[in-house]
TrEMBL record:
Keywords, sorted A to Z: Plasmid
Pfam families: NikA-like
Database matches in InterPro entries: MobA-like (IPR047751), NikA-like (IPR053842)
Organism, as annotated: Rahnella sikkimica
Protein known as: Mobilization protein
Length: 113
């Protein structure tokens, strides 16, 4: 968004809603990675609102996999069969968790409150 478009937004519209409605709006905006104002603008203008996958979750899983691999290589000389099996199970679990994250954007309307 260009700076000039931001500067043009100088009109404030207030909205009354219940606590539950406010929480639902905030939750959907957070899931989509946009502000509540942007969510409401897009909704009012019938623009698409797509939810993005939690990139932080993906990065954390990748980081944990890297740490597990590092530990495995550090302990390689003193590795037992049981310890190797445990490392393998953890790495398999991390791979399954990464693959379970659906990277397809989802319309915000489909998010359950």
């Amino acid at each position: 968004m260009a700076k000039s478009e931001k500067r043009q937004r100088n009109t404030l519209i207030q909205l009354r809603c219940t606590e539950a409605e406010a929480e639902a709006i905030k939750k959907k905006a957070m899931a989509a990675g946009i502000s509540t104002s942007e969510l409401l603008r897009r909704s009012a203008m019938n623009r698409r609102i797509m939810v993005r996958t939690d990139i932080r979750m993906m990065n954390e899983l990748k980081r944990l996999g890297g740490l597990q691999k590092h530990l495995y290589s550090q302990m390689h000389e003193t590795m037992t069969t049981e310890l190797s099996r445990q490392f393998s199970e953890v790495l398999s679990g991390i791979v399954i968790a990464i693959n379970a994250l659906d990277m397809t954007p989802v319309p915000a309307e489909e998010i359950k409150d």
